[in-house]
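Reviewers of the previous submission asked for a worked example of the structure-prediction workflow described in the proposal, so we include one complete record here. The input consisted solely of the amino acid sequence. No template or homolog information was supplied to the procedure at any stage.
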Amino acid sequence: MNDPLSPSPVVELDGISRAFGGRAVLDGITLQVGRGELFGLLGPSGSGKTTLIKLITGIDRADRGVVRLLGERMPRLSMLQRFGYMAQSDALYAELTAKENLMFFGALYGLGGVRREERIRSAMAVVDLLEHLNKPVSAYSGGMKRRLSLAIALLHEPELLILDEPTVGIDPVLRQSIWRELLALRDRGTTLILTTHVMDEADRCDRVGLIRDGRLTAVGSPADLKARTGTATIEDAFIAIGGGARV
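From that input alone, the workflow returned the following structure tokens.
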């Protein structure tokens, strides 16, 4: 992993704030994520994780502050092909088969011909859905839809992969398999940002940002956060920090 504070971070947030209906959802977020880093955003529901992800991907625009992705100020439509995004809610065409969904998104990413076919099979193998490739998405279970959404995000081998609660609804055995692939992607130089409220997943990240009530209360490696709080688990560290102490 490269130094996350290198001169050219993959993601750079500077003083990001966002409010809805007069209520602050994010308040002064400043953060850098380096190339080849697996960065986790850990926090309870409603803490601002998903809003922050939407600002990074350009789906939403900050009220204040600057978001830069791979050196480009966001939002910018031309960046679509350079990152993969798996949303918390599955954005799939239920009337189409899984393969037809993958072909559609592959075309959006600029994939075609033999290369697209290769990537479809490879991505579906990662999420263990190859035998269901030609099944209509309407016949998929909730967990299968999550896995298909992940396959779509992986399809074009992006240099940055952004995942919002990627393993929700996925059984423990497959979750381990997906994590092996995520770690392998990181080791090959892909930058990953994911949100989670699962403590053992946070422990696998290179660094974690603890977010509560729209503020980053701490950023560091899991080992560092546990050492700084004198706790044995990342869950205890989060509780200690969230209890009012700033780390």
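Confidence is low (pLDDT under 50) at residues 1-7, 243-247. We consider this example representative of the routine output the project will generate in years two and three.
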